[in-house]
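Might you be able to review the protein record set out just below?
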Amino acid sequence: MNKLQDNLLTTVKACLCPPGDGVYTVNTAKERKQQLQQSIYPGTEQVNSAWKQSLASLPNSDNAVMLGIASDCGGGILRGANWGPLFLRATLHEKAKELSYFDIGDVRVNPHLLHDKYLNQATISNCRNAFYQDDTAKYPVSPLSITELVADVFYAAYPQKGLFGIGGDHSISYPLTKAYLKAKQQQGKKVAIIHFDAHTDLLVERLGIDLCFGSWCTHILKYLHSPSHLIQIGIRSSGKPKSHWENEFGVTQHWANEVQELGVEHIINTILLQLDEEEIDELYVSFDIDAIDSSFVSATGTPEPDGLTPSEAMNVLKALSAKYPITGADMMEIAPFTDTSGEGIKSSQQTLAVAAELSEFLLTKISNN
């Protein structure tokens, strides 16, 4: 390993934990954690040691690297997306046994924190002592801050690999996309973010907080070559019309009703024309599961009717990836314990099945680049 790879390994061992351990809990979903970890590291009870040993094979792994961020600290409607990484991983292990990727682990999440910039030094020192047994440690303590650090050192060490982040609420896409966009700028790549969502996530702040599930897009625009390279698909829940968001922020939007009225092929062709005209090199896909109609996915914090069908979303991904490499992605806002449909566990299973199919496709595309 070179120095950059050594730095990543040191940072990962300090700031991450084994897959499934990102949620600090005693009994809830304990059996699910154990089942997942036994499928990843069979035949061992020393999961932490097995995870650390596995990190040595990262240099020779597939291009797709999975990172779980089990935080819903940046949410604000129905909570529970912190369970997304555990449950989606388990679903992928069950339904996509041949899928190949490298699981780097989970961000160590303090569920009371969001970003270090909101904390005073005394709190940071106390949390560093709890996390790292050293109140002067150089590492951050909040999930967004840790995610950004890990993503930064990851891209520095492995510029040709891609992260697939699992959330968690959508605020997590802020550090993931920020690190990605900075890395691609250094590589001289012009990239677009394909953002599937029922909501614009273009608030400047929410209740005085500038980094949250409803505002993360606003704060990554400056890292794009042009704000129009944020292409949003599936929008339908907004207090303001499409013209406001496009004129105010310069983004590109394709609302859900346009997909229904014009057809998904028309939307695909429009996006491909834009990508071609603006000479885009690579794509990052940020997928909020509530982009899909709530009749298909209701185990999420803000389910919305009249959305995309899973096949429409998949058709978009297939068409775009046929022309442009997808080199990073995330899947957000899966809340397995949240049920708004009245169908209980069936709702969770259906949501996870849809998310797993989309995630499998994205992971495969990242690995193939």
